[in-house]
What does this fold into?
Amino acid sequence: MQLDGKIALITGGGSGIGRETAVLFAQHGATLAIADLDPAGGQETMQMIRDAGGTAVFIQTDVSQAAQVEAMVSEVVAAYGRLDIAFNNAGIDGLPVRTADGSEDEYDRIMAVNAKGVWLCLKYEIQQMLLQKGGTIINTASVAGLIGAHSMSAYAASKHAVVGLTKTAAVEYASKGIRVNAVCPAIIRTAMVERAFTQLPRLEQGAIQNNPSHRLGEPHEVAQAVLWLASDASSFTTGATLTVDGGLTAQ
It folds into this structure.
């Protein structure tokens, strides 16, 4: 699963799954572009890769803004000449609330980043990959994109959208040498999740009890799945939704 000579872009690379994947990609030979809305986190990831002897740049990006996403892809190509791998990982959550009690503003906020943001990334990444005649894209969906998610209607809707976008783009561009897949994690112990647990401690207990593995996932476990999807080891895999969930959706 080596990525020697590959140019990889990771959105949401400033923390959590994005950071773990960036470091893992670099360890396997990739050159990185780290995109994140948070400059401190993104630059920290970039420096971690550089300190380990790898090559990385940071691009501050709000994936919900078309002009910024287009500029992000252009900056990657300007820096490195091409784009071989894109991991569209940037996303946000929301406070648990039943469908009838949710606000329109909160729904729009989540959809703008999680669904529209992935669509915008796909749009500009695919345009570049068509010029190159190939590439591979991995989107971060969720088990909430495969099943119902109690009190998370907006989040679930956004992740179902990611699955739909993934499958559609995969079918559209398979003959062009572009593969598009999604990774679907259960609850992973990231900073974003820890913040939610701090606000609602019962969520952690419930997540552990409801998972057949009786634990949460770790970012590096998702990163390993993304590495496989990014590499030539998965060369005949496109349009797939790879669950990393400890058996949650097998119940």
Remarks:
- The mean pLDDT is 96.
